[in-house]
Prior knowledge:
Keywords: FAD, Flavoprotein, Glycoprotein, Oxidoreductase, Signal
Bound molecules: flavin-adenine dinucleotide, 2-acetamido-2-deoxy-beta-D-glucopyranose
Largest sheet: 8 strands, antiparallel
Helix content: 10-25%
Number of strands: 26
Distance between the termini: 21 Å
Domain Glucose-methanol-choline oxidoreductase N-terminal: 299-313
Cofactor: FAD
Low-confidence stretches: 1-19
GO molecular function: flavin adenine dinucleotide binding; oxidoreductase activity, acting on CH-OH group of donors
Strand content: 15-25%
Shape: globular
Protein name: Alcohol oxidase
Mean pLDDT: 93
Amino acid sequence: xxxxxxxxxxxxxxxxxxxxxxxxxxxxxxxxxxxxxxxxxxxxxxxxxxxxxxxxxxxxxxxxxxxxxxxxxxxxxxxxxxxxxxxxxxxxxxxxxxxxxxxxxxxxxxxxxxxxxxxxxxxxxxxxxxxxxxxxxxxxxxxxxxxxxxxxxxxxxxxxxxxxxxxxxxxxxxxxxxxxxxxxxxxxxxxxxxxxxxxxxxxxxxxxxxxxxxxxxxxxxxxxxxxxxxxxxxxxxxxxxxxxxxxxxxxxxxxxxxxxxxxxxxxxxxxxxxxxxxxxxxxxxxxxxxxxxxxxxxxxxxxxxxxxxxxxxxxxxxxxxxxxxxxxxxxxxxxxxxxxxxxxxxxxxxxxxxxxxxxxxxxxxxxxxxxxxxxxxxxxxxxxxxxxxxxxxxxxxxxxxxxxxxxxxxxxxxxxxxxxxxxxxxxxxxxxxxxxxxxxxxxxxxxxxxxxxxxxxxxxxxxxxxxxxxxxxxxxxxxxxxxxxxxxxxxxxxxxxxxxxxxxxxxxxxxxxxxxxxxxxxxxxxxxxxxxxxxxxxxxxxxxxxxxxxxxxxxxxxxxxxxxxxxxxxxxxxxxxxxx
Length: 580
Ligand SMILES: Cc1cc2nc3c(=O)[nH]c(=O)nc-3n(C[C@H](O)[C@H](O)[C@H](O)COP(=O)(O)OP(=O)(O)OC[C@H]3O[C@@H](n4cnc5c(N)ncnc54)[C@H](O)[C@@H]3O)c2cc1C
Ligand SMILES: *[C@@H]1O[C@H](CO)[C@@H](O)[C@H](O)[C@H]1NC(C)=O
Ligand SMILES: *[C@@H]1O[C@H](CO)[C@@H](O)[C@H](O)[C@H]1NC(C)=O
Ligand SMILES: *[C@@H]1O[C@H](CO)[C@@H](O)[C@H](O)[C@H]1NC(C)=O
Ligand SMILES: *[C@@H]1O[C@H](CO)[C@@H](O)[C@H](O)[C@H]1NC(C)=O
Ligand SMILES: *[C@@H]1O[C@H](CO)[C@@H](O)[C@H](O)[C@H]1NC(C)=O
Ligand SMILES: *[C@@H]1O[C@H](CO)[C@@H](O)[C@H](O)[C@H]1NC(C)=O
Ligand SMILES: *[C@@H]1O[C@H](CO)[C@@H](O)[C@H](O)[C@H]1NC(C)=O
Ligand SMILES: *[C@@H]1O[C@H](CO)[C@@H](O)[C@H](O)[C@H]1NC(C)=O
Ligand SMILES: *[C@@H]1O[C@H](CO)[C@@H](O)[C@H](O)[C@H]1NC(C)=O
Ligand SMILES: *[C@@H]1O[C@H](CO)[C@@H](O)[C@H](O)[C@H]1NC(C)=O
Ligand SMILES: *[C@@H]1O[C@H](CO)[C@@H](O)[C@H](O)[C@H]1NC(C)=O
């Protein structure tokens, strides 16, 4: 095979007879796709072609410099997915949602940019969830996926750089992977106000912990970023899993091509066989490529549309678009889940010189601790109502998390300074496990048209109440000494907004998404809306897999990428152990 990494359509070229068959075609060179491609091509006799819609991103400072907060958004490396109006929130729209369209995928653009009073910066965070959450994957029927196996796969991806002693940041070395492909580290040093934030959390009944990355997520800790400390550059799946390996002749990448659908050599019921995929290049020319195995790694909004255009999905729906059903799989595109938040701000008596200060993440064990005992009875009664679109299996998994006192709310805490005026304390409650479920579906057979994305946020009143009750509890922590002594005023919500009713209205009006979308090609039993089995193979196929965030069944009490790396590492290990 030619050592080309850039030649579009080379396998369908002039001398097909001299070209050896391709083993794997991977759709999407994003966070998960490049991990799988890297692990497969470690065996020189296995050939892989990655088809990526974006470019290589090399030299793009908006990607490499994580302090250019959100600069990549709205540029050519961002898909800018349009989203539908929020049916349960006054039909407001949240506008276009960012997703990476470049080698590295969303790991290349995942810096959060909240333009409140200050530009608050929570980006390239790298953290794992709680063992109690990962064990629910197994309880849902996903053999082999539990805390032990997911944590091990996650640590395999991580290369942790411990902070220097002068940085004054606590950590626990044994909570981290030390020789993986993704560099993780902390950003700037912590100023004295941090000690008072920690003290108030402890005085209000929370816990201080050195580290939340070891599977027990309970307490306030500094944020770990996917960043190489030597030159403060972002570590992406492209810098970690592709560029250093691009000389592998069996690791090919074709850029700037959009995959439209899977091609089938057999559509026999229950055992459809893919022969490859169809894609279009920037000229609009259609190509096909054959491979023994097809892996979709196009992301939570990218993979389901490809399945649907290939006849895999809700047969009634597909037939309404004139698409012949190959596999009736109603879970495709359903179960869309997103973690939601409602940012809060206070003004401080001081103007810190640092523009951005090392932030904290705070998780507190049990819903009672995070929402306050006075709100618990109402929340329990709301949790007792199973919302539409949430399967019995997923509903029971959430009740089990509740019974296990697993963390339900995560709080992002940072201090930053606007262009003028005093510093601002930002404290953001995040509902980690909302009960509402949305969907992503194609709107036509056009292979490059955007799908329809309906988040369905706040379909369950439980979700609204969690945010409001957590906001009320945060107000009580912030009024606890010693941090209370720094506070000069409440910015958002405004002073006086303290009742649960008012805070629910605040949450509805100010909700922001975390971009931690999962679930649209759910891993789980077929009868529970599953799209892939525990090997991540699509039900009813012989050789089609989905390996990306869309298979994740339960959100971690964390940002998502570390879990996506874990899924990809484990899926790759399963593929190589069966093919070796
Ligand atoms: C703005 C933002 C901020 C975030 N912040 C954080 C954070 O701080 N910490 C954290 O842990 N997580 C964060 N996340 C979430 C995390 O980045 C994602 O969950 C994760 O990267 C998703 O990985 P994936 O492999 O599923 O998809 P992606 O990484 O998005 O990869 C999908 C790839 O497929 C390609 N593709 C899609 N469709 C096609 C097609 N038809 N043909 C060819 N190629 C295609 C895309 O271009 C892309 O390269 C954030 C995400 C975003 C968008
Ligand atoms: C970087 O981001 C800025 C701001 O969004 C944009 O104007 C610029 O074109 C981007 N650069 C590249 C190389 O995309
Ligand atoms: C939102 O739009 C839908 C569909 O058009 C409509 O039925 C509903 O009444 C609207 N809701 C609000 C709150 O405006
Ligand atoms: C520790 O300090 C050295 C010297 O300033 C620097 O090169 C290195 O990147 C720092 N390490 C971390 C993890 O910040
Ligand atoms: C940062 O350092 C790494 C490792 O030395 C190097 O590969 C990378 O090119 C550097 N990035 C930039 C933008 O300087
Ligand atoms: C690729 O480059 C690395 C580092 O230079 C080298 O160790 C490896 O042998 C090379 N692999 C191939 C297939 O050329
Ligand atoms: C590619 O797959 C198609 C079936 O979709 C088949 O007709 C064709 O012969 C295959 N080509 C090669 C070179 O194997
Ligand atoms: C399948 O699609 C049809 C038509 O859109 C819809 O009425 C039905 O509810 C869907 N079925 C499931 C299980 O989602
Ligand atoms: C999901 O919720 C929406 C909004 O309430 C509803 O229209 C749709 O029918 C639901 N889907 C299913 C499969 O229940
Ligand atoms: C949770 O605990 C309650 C009370 O003990 C019990 O009735 C319920 O079955 C449990 N639910 C799950 C999903 O474990
Ligand atoms: C398909 O959708 C794309 C993007 O919306 C559009 O530019 C193109 O014209 C459409 N093609 C057809 C044949 O309608
Ligand atoms: C702000 O308040 C804190 C806590 O009372 C105090 O330690 C600090 O000196 C004050 N800073 C300024 C600039 O007044």
